[in-house]
């Protein structure tokens, strides 16, 4: 890319959010670990560098730092929270514990409105999250903002384009924070905003062709947004050298297998290989109740079936996956930092060495909304682009407890009616993800003057942008009532429906 903003990640939970904000202004960015060298940065030739926040204190032993030569590159630099403190520490300022912690909504007073704070007036609301603060400015630095608690809530080096802010401009709780990032991009880094999905396609096709050369690639196609977009992008780059394998694991939604076959095998004329493995998956999952065991069994079995099918193909040297940023972030810290593992994803790092295939992940650093934009640019039908996310392990992790053919059918039919109703009422596209969960509890009910003791279905619907955070969808009671009525009356084995009103965090979107 001709324009690049480099984000150096010091373990912040918001690093990926910084990336999203930058990309919203059509500027390409990459996240790299603190270990990146100044020499590597010179090779990448970024227009600017952002130091993220992080959970550590700059005063503690073994606090993450960066190559000191980075400060001598002459590249515009913005430090956020921990990143600001790292800059202050490097230039011999003083950082220490604040007598009063700042968390949450904080009023910021702008001392110098130019450059970073251009167009923001004299004060603004910001979101703070820190215990340390800069208590003495380094030489040649001046204060550009303060709060009642922090005398130096923003600073600038008077001889170079180095800035620091103690708050988080990337979060929605800093309402005008995007303007600060915009000022950094366009006024300080002199970016022009040339990164679009059209340019991404062009660059990705080139990279795929350079990586794959004359070899063939095999992709596990599920029919979801991620794998579908990955398939079209790879097909554009490789043509018939792409082979898509669709494994029917019996954990799919109603009618999904037929739809995928019709779309990709017939419409797009992609090399399409169908594998019926429903019986095999059900046998291996018999009696398994642990969600992590389910994921691992499904992941291992998927790769086993996939490997068996891939061996039938000639000249295949690469395995493609539709891995996205949130997949990587939730499975492990993006670049080996201190972030916690929430749950494992079977499509992240699950490639066994025995397959002797190299990995191609063309969507690895895209967020879900960006993948949808990419799908639109590639000409993918709206019904696939706007389709709600569906986990790799499928309905297995939406059945709490053991998995049986009967329980799968109950959930499949319930979920079909839930999705059908929100589509009929026109609210499907207002919801980021909707799903049904079969609970491992039964309850007493009454049907036709007779006592019933049957299953409970939980409905879950959330609004979100990228899946990193989510709020429960405020579906009107009348619609929820109709959904509940349909499920109880039409799905044998269900006599109770409940609605999940938890946000993420603290809950995750999926239940397992």
Main features:
globular; nine-stranded mixed β-sheet; single chain; five-stranded parallel β-sheet; 512 residues; alpha/beta
Relative helix content: 25-40%
**What's the total count of β strands?**
18
- As laid out across the biggest beta sheet, the strand order is 2-1-3-4-9-8-7-5-6
Structural class: alpha/beta
Stretches with pLDDT under 50, minimum 5 residues: 331-346
Give a quick account of the main beta sheet: strands, pairing sense, barrel closure: 9 strands, mixed
Contiguous helical run count: 14
Strand content: 15-25%
Arithmetic mean pLDDT = 89
State the separation between the terminal residues, measured CA to CA.
39 Å
Shape: globular
The value of Rg in angstroms is 25 Å
What does this structure look like?
This protein has 14 helices and 18 strands. It is α/β, with parallel strands linked by helices and 512 residues long. It has a nine-stranded mixed beta sheet, with helices on both faces. A five-stranded parallel beta sheet has the order 12-11-10-13-14, sandwiched between helices. Helix 6 (225-238) links the parallel strand 10 (216-220) and strand 11 (242-248).
